[in-house]
Amino acid sequence: MADDRILEVSNIEVVYHHTVQVLRGLSLNVPRGEVVALLGSNGAGKSTTLKAIANVLFLENGELSSGEIRFQGDVVGSRPPHRLVHDGLCHVMEGRRVFEDLTVEENLVAAGYAASSGAGRGKQKLVYEYFPQLYSRRRSLAGYLSGGEQQMLAIGRGLLGQPSMMLLDEPSLGLSPMLVEEIFGIIARINREQGVAMLLVEQNANVALALASYGYIMESGRVVIDGTPEKLMADDDVREFYLGSGAGGESKSYREVKHYKRRKRWLS
Asked: For residues 180 and 163, what is the distance between their CA atoms, to the nearest angstrom?
């Protein structure tokens, strides 16, 4: 039911520079309190989808040319990005985007002041509970943190706004398998303990589907297949192109198969 959905994306199209169409009739839903994975290769339109939801396309000369996005029942396009943040939408962008010349603690203080009515101020304790590593580095400049620590800080800053939903763009990017496991374990805790819904953009399909209750796979700006993790992991195409194994069980990396033509039924 629509009342159970914190996010509804309905048949949207996105165009950059008035000429380049990136999203083509994309639809997806995120239920309250659930984790939904959005998977796909580079260039599929995953990050653009998150930017459309956060209403920041204008920063890159992009626009929502068709369709509708609703967050908490209200149309996103009618609200500026800062209002969406105040209303409970957190966008953790690809590349972490921390303030490198500020300390960890100063990054959190700045994020706290951006939260609605100061709700995030004084909430650093919650961030340090989830990311104790940040507490030990709280006096360090963010620019000197490791990639994993910067990702923790980016997620921690988002928590200060007490979000009801987080958009997470490639949280595993550039991290070691051990760090990916640690960060995704914390993401799962935040979802479970804080009840925060999440739309998780990932290329690492295995780790994303292990966390999600539902998944969408994008190709060329639209969803080509969706379903429960069990359904997606049983699909031969998904296994071949995103999970690293072919229908016969042989191991394949995405690098080896990325030039293969997707089956026609995916693009019909």
From this structure: 22
Q: Is 251 helix (H, G, I), strand (E, B) or coil?
A: strand
pLDDT tens digits, 144-188: 999 999 999 999 999 998 999 999 999 998 888 999 999 999 999
Which residue do the tokens 């006096």 mark?
139
Query: Hunting for tokens 């690492």 — which residue is that?
Result: 204
Q: Specify if 56 maps to a domain.
A: yes
The kind and range of the H/E element at 199 are strand 197-202
Which residue matches tokens 């994975």?
37
Q: What is the CATH number of the domain that holds 50?
A: 3.40.50.300
The CA-based diameter of the chain, rounded to the nearest angstrom, is 56
Question: What is the gyration radius of the CA atoms in the chain, in angstroms?
Answer: 18
CB 169 within 8 A of CB 138: no
11 lies in which domain range? Answer: 2-88+163-267
Helix (H) or strand (E) holding 185: helix 177-194
Q: Please, what sign has the CA dihedral across residues 79, 191, 215, 221? A: positive
Question: pLDDT by residue (tens digit) across 186-208?
Answer: 999 999 999 999 999 998 899 99
The reply to whether 201 falls in a domain is: yes
pTM, to two decimals: 0.86
Q: How many domains, in total, are found in the chain?
A: 1
